[in-house]
């Protein structure tokens, strides 16, 4: 057990037998240490080292989970709050009883792992001390072999024989903590400087005056949906079909790629990066920027005084103080859209219903000035089961008709446990979300409607692939040709499907490019 803990990698892809046929330097150093210590100090040192090794094993397991779902390792400073989100996701996907049982089981296993690892280390120390002569000889021989293998770079099955895996893992975790603490101060300074922070209201977005502008995020809509051989056929067919349908309705579209600040989850990091023009790739950065007054793209519309601003947030199920930061006059959460139908796993309501509610409550109303809206669509959120079906828009009502749709859908347990099923159903969910949004535009859009929609991040690594990019599609759709003429220099692809060689920008670059393209004059604020 101790040997396995010392050699355990921190990713599922590396979890292979050849990783456990190595010689750990930490075991040699530990053996040498306990051989020279008296009994009481030996037991204390062994118990402490075993406890630390157990904790390190837990961190390695967390790293595996985070890499599998979010494409990155676990951050000791920032990521504890995400465990609560994971529990909520599991509850929505698998049920409350399963979640409670799983939570209790995980906590007990974690405690047991640390305790047993500590006991195992103490037992090994006592065995070494009881056989001091043989242990000393073995330690000297093993240490010599380790040094020789390290010096010569000897490998077994493609992996170096000499290992310092545990020590390296500690260094990695320490570096993450150090870099996180340093980043906090540096980012706070960066967030106070803003290219458009002092721009007068009359010099913001002058070329979009009179337009109803909608910024829509499609959950987990990533590049893999368009390029992966399993998922792309249906998604690309949908994008091409909807491009043609919009063309017949008088709309044109241009599309490109943005590299998201997050991957597999933590959608709010993608939203805030896109709208703030700052690279927000962790929770600390998010808390820093949302507690300040940095100008977001949505707030720029409010600052002009020429638009009403609203947020449609079916994924928000609790207090959301960030509304002020984003400059939204009014926000509709999951309980304020009038939905009386079933949840679809994590998603509180189908995208089609959320868009119809948006039309009924805000977009379809007569008003004295145009509307700027931020719409978050959630039907493509994992576990992608059950997936809503499109119904006649006239029949949506309060959403009760979706009871039958939800009951006829696939069980999330059958999808979440299968990589192939997850990929297939993910693709179908993107088809549904894109179709819902573009049908809404086709049905309710006007000559003055401008739709900007994009994905917030790629799906989890087990769906998008181990080495998938962080790129997501982004499209601008409008009837007025002048709107798209303003971004001609961007060289985006015509239609809703960006070409493979279309421009790729970091997501935080969009805000400034958009503001400049539509008539905003930079007036920087400085730290």
Automatic annotation (TrEMBL):
The keyword Chaperone does not apply. InterPro entries: Alkaline_phosphatase_core_sf. The chain crosses the membrane at residues 23-38, 43-62, 100-122. Keywords: Membrane, Transmembrane, Transmembrane helix. The keyword Iron does not apply. This is CDP-alcohol phosphatidyltransferase.
């Amino acid at each position: 057990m101790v040997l396995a803990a010392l050699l355990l990698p921190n990713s599922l892809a590396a979890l292979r037998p050849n990783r456990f046929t190595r010689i750990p330097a930490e075991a040699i150093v530990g053996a040498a240490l306990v051989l020279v210590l008296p009994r009481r100090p030996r037991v204390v040192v062994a118990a402490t080292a075993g406890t630390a090794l157990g904790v390190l094993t837990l961190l390695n397991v967390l790293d595996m989970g985070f890499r599998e779902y979010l494409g990155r390792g676990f951050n000791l400073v920032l990521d504890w709050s995400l465990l609560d989100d994971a529990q909520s996701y599991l509850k929505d996907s698998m049920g409350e009883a399963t979640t409670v049982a799983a939570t209790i089981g995980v906590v007990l296993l974690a405690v047991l792992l640390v305790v047993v690892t500590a006991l195992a280390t103490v037992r090994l120390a006592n065995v070494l001390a009881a056989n001091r002569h043989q242990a000393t000889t073995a330690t000297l021989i093993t240490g010599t072999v380790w040094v020789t293998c390290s010096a010569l770079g000897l490998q077994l099955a493609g992996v170096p024989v000499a290992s310092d895996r545990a020590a390296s893992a500690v260094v990695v975790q320490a570096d993450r903590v150090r870099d996180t603490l340093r980043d906090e101060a540096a980012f706070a300074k960066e967030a106070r400087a803003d290219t458009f922070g002092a721009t007068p209201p009359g010099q913001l977005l002058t070329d979009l005056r009179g337009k109803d502008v909608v910024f829509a995020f499609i959950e987990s809509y990533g590049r893999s949906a368009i390029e992966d051989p399993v998922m792309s056929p249906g998604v690309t067919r949908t994008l091409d079909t909807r491009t043609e349908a919009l063309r017949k309705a008088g709309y044109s579209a241009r599309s490109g790629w943005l590299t998201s600040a997050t991957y597999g989850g933590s959608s709010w990091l993608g939203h805030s990066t896109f709208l703030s023009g700052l690279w927000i790739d962790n929770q600390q950065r998010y808390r820093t920027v949302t507690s300040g007054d940095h100008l977001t793209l949505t707030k720029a519309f409010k600052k002009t005084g020429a638009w009403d601003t609203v947020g449609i947030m079916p994924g928000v199920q609790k207090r959301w103080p960030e509304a002020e930061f984003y400059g939204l006059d009014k926000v509709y959460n999951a309980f304020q859209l009038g939905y009386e139908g079933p949840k679809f796993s994590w998603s509180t309501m189908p995208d089609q219903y959320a868009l119809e509610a948006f039309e009924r409550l805000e977009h379809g109303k007569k008003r004295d000035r145009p509307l700027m809206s931020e719409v978050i669509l959630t039907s493509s959120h994992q576990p992608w089961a059950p997936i809503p079906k499109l119904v006649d828009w006239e029949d949506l009502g309060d959403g009760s008709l979706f009871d039958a749709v939800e009951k006829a859908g696939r069980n999330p347990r059958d999808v979440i446990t299968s990589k192939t099923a997850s990929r297939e159903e993910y693709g179908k969910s993107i088809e549904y979300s894109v179709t819902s949004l573009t049908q809404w535009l086709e049905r309710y859009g006007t000559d003055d409607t401008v739709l900007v929609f994009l994905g917030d991040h790629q799906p989890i690594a087990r769906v998008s692939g181990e080495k998938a990019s962080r790129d997501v599609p982004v499209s601008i759709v409008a009837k007025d040709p002048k709107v798209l003429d303003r971004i001609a220099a961007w060289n985006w692809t015509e239609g809703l499907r960006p070409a493979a060689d279309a421009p790729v920008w970091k997501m935080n670059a969009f805000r400034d490019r958009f503001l400049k393209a539509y008539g905003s004059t930079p007036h920087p604020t400085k730290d």
